Amino acid sequence: MSIEILVGLPHLNNGPILDRVRRLGQPALVSANALSRWGMRDGVREWQGWRTTQLANAYGLSSLALDSAGFVATAAYGGFPWGLGDYVALAASYPFRWWASADYCVEPEIARDRAEVLDRISRTIRANRDCLMLGRDAGIERTFLPVIQGRRPQDYERCAEALWGPISRQRRVGVGSMCRRDVRGDEGVIAVVEHLDAILPASTRLHLFGVKGDAIPYLLPYAHRIETLDSQAYGISARREAHRRRTRKSDRFVADHLEAWLRAQNAKLRAAPARLPIAAAPAPDPAPTDPWEAAIAQAQAEIRDLIESGDLLGPVL
């Protein structure tokens, strides 16, 4: 088995980038945010729906997957500006290779302490369940991609256990909060993949969201487990090069960087696999010794259970 790279697209405008990806026959991924339509109401910028007409430009691509834009939505807007019903309607408007569940990322700049990481894992579990329910109603359950979240490898296991049914049925799962993660270490990319390889059903394949190219040699030993990964790193290199040359970062300029970047990634996929030493598991959270702190921790755990079950805050719509 080989790992496939999905090219992250900045937009679906007709032009050099789409033409290049189409000519290369490379599968692609687009973020829901790239299809957002915005307007002004009372002087305030407001989300006003999807630019679904742009999806017609994607025909002829090898395949197109849909990401929920969890990190961008949180970092740029403080949360999803659209509801899950809106998102699933977008997913139903095109024959996507797969559409990822909405999820609540836990990068350090988003989830600043352990309690917030755990809160966002619970919200991710609830969002998966609601997306699946809405996707079933829309007739697109078959292409649903469950997404698990975590900071530590054991966090992903906890998330996967809560979503074991959908993961087992879909036979693939997306792994979030990978983009800004170190390759090495007890919370690194390889530690997470290694742990998931040990605990998931043998038939379940992984999609790794936004993994850096530096990780590829160390991911090759897990090619039996990893189906796909995506990246839009070529856009960063194009921006830096345009700045260095003091030239405009046109779509044609970006497309040239895309092709060169893709050649480099494919060369890494053909290289000999590399292995890192097995990282020791992170220490579990210490139990609170103060009775008041213990009571707060217990209350937080109960609230998370209610969020996951849908009994608190209702479905995440």
TrEMBL record:
Pfam families, per the entry: DpdA
Keyword Transmembrane helix in record: no
Source superkingdom: Bacteria
DeoxyPurine in DNA protein A domain residues: 62-243
Keyword vocabulary terms for this entry: Plasmid
Gene Ontology annotations of biological process type: tRNA modification
Name recorded for this polypeptide: DeoxyPurine in DNA protein A domain-containing protein
Species the sequence originates in: Sphingomonas sanxanigenens DSM 19645 = NX02
